[in-house]
Each structure stands twice: as C-alpha cells, then as structure tokens.
Amino acid sequence: MDGMTATTARKVLLAAPRGYCAGVDRAVIAVEKALEQYGAPVYVRKEIVHNKYVVQTLEKKGAIFVDETEEVPENAIVIFSAHGVAPVVHEEAARRNLATIDATCPLVTKVHKEAVRFAGDDYDILLIGHEGHEEVVGTSGEAPEHITLVDGPEDVKNVHVRDESRVVWLSQTTLSVDETMETVDALKERFPKLISPPSDDICYATQNRQTAVKQMGADADLVIVVGSKNSSNSVRLVEVALGAGARDAHLVDFAAEIDEAWLEGVSTVGVTSGASVPEILVQGVLDWLAERGFGDVEIVTAAEESITFSLPKELRRDLRAEAASLSDGSKG
To answer: Is 305 known to be catalytic?
Structure first.
C-alpha cells in the first residue's frame, strides 16, 4: 500500500519564470499612472496587453479600450498598447490632436527599428509571425512595401522576393523559438543568402517561459497554462508543453475554467502563465488544485529575470514635473 501511495503522490510543478514580463509590467503601470495623473477616462487603443483580467481591472479604474484611434474623442489622451502600432496610427492621433502615451514594449520597438533600417537599405524583409496579430500589423506598417509575412514553415513556398541576395528575416517577439527556427531553416533552404537580424527577435521572456515549460513538461501528466486565448505567447506555451512530453495541456483565463475531468489519472500537474498574466490568477489555480489534493508545490526554475524598463517618456516627463512641483510646495 505504501508503494502505491508513493507512486500516486500528487504534486504541482510551478514554472519559473512565469507571468508578467518587463514590457507588460511597464504597459500596465503606464495606464495606472496615466489614470492617477490625468484622471479618468484615459483611452487605450487595443487591449493594453492580451489578458482578460488585466483589461477588466483597468476598465474598472476608468480606462476605455477602443479598437481604432478614430473612436477616441479629439484632444483626449490615448495610450498605445505594448504590441506597438504602425506609423499611420501616430499620424491619425496627431490629426485628432490626441495626447499620446506610447506603451510599446521596447523589444517590439527594436524590431520596428530593424524593419525601418533594412527597408532603407532596400532589402526584402520576411516577417515571421501570425497574420492579424497586433504586433505583426504594427511592424508591417513600418515598411509595408518591403515586408512579406511568413506565417509558419508551410507558408515559405508562397514567398516571392525581388533579389535573393538582399533578403532578411525578422519575427514577432512572442512566437515559439522552435517554430521560428523551423521557419527560418525552411526560408534558408529557399534563399541561401538570407540574412538573420542583428539580434534574436524572440523576446527573453517568451524564451525563458518556454524553457521552463520544456523542463517541466516531460514530468507532468497535465500542464495548465494561465493566459488568454488571444495571447500568442500563452497559446505557444500549451504547444511547447505538449511538444515536451506532457500528456495533456490546457489554456485557462481563471481557475474556474479548469475541468475536473482533466485530473483523472493525474499525479503531477505543471502550472505556468503567459507574459501578460498577473500572479493573482496563478495563485487562484494553485488554490483550486490544493483543494483537490495537489498542495505540494515544487518550483522548476529555468532562468532568473532582472530586466526592467523605464516608463514611457511622456509619463516620465509629466511625473517629474509633478514631483518637482510637490517638492517645491513642501519645501516652501
């Protein structure tokens, strides 16, 4: 009997790192600070980050999320999401006299700058990413006549370039590392002179979260990824878990979405969360699992993260001015 209980001991493998990355943290704080600084409402173009709970929480505080810039009243404040926007969106905002706060993740901005530079040198740019994703729309808008979207390895056969000796690839930052390299390899077969970007575009946080899931996946009967369905990096984590050997893997926004049937015959549950997920939602899942006998939690650490990004410059400027006036007032 003892032997049997030993083999069926229930435990949770909790991935580290998980959840908020520096770019998401910066974007969410930017909305909160803007609401404190200027008062509600503050408009946000698209979801600030792809997470249902975060969006709902900010809405309660007075943020209004819109799909297009034209929905923002003239002379109002608009925040651009962490995923970045095309130059045409900045132009629309200027036409409507909007005060803009750009919360684009600095790692996405880096890809935009690479696109502009390679387009300026008249390269054909093959952008690896998912059609319609906000980040892809934003990057493509930097040089639409030079950029061709490549949506996975199977799309490579459809690619046409002007000059095979002047071709470079860039990528959406939130893809799976493996999927991207598979696409790059297929592109290199077709275009042997294909140039790689000066630095790997897959962001450190996406990569670290996938590495942690790979370490954990092989030992887990079930992996629960906390994240929203429109979050590219969260969806990838489910795929990575299955690829790493997990028997089953699911994406949930909240603990209430977990199906008890998933636990049948399961002794080890892996838990992680996408880069736009606050830790309170992960804690909810751990509590749900603990109530069902999975109270033993072991942390699987793949990397340490210490990266932080400063707030958008528009907010830093205003916050500095406010701090200065407050300190003047207090010093008399």
So the answer is: no
Task: Name residues whose C-beta falls within 8 Å of residue 146's C-beta, 6 or more positions apart in sequence.
Answer: 115, 118, 119, 122, 123, 124, 125
pLDDT at 187: 98
pTM of the model: 0.92
Averaged over 96-109, what is the pLDDT? 97
Instruction: Choose, from 47, 92, 114, 135, the residue flagged as catalytic.
Output: 135
User: 147-172: per-residue pLDDT in tens?
Assistant: 999 999 999 999 999 999 999 999 99
For 130, other C-beta atoms within 10 Å of its C-beta total 15
Question: How far is the C-alpha of 176 from the C-alpha of 172, rounded, in Å?
Answer: 10
pLDDT digits (tens, 9 = 90+) for 197-223: 988 788 999 999 999 999 999 999 999
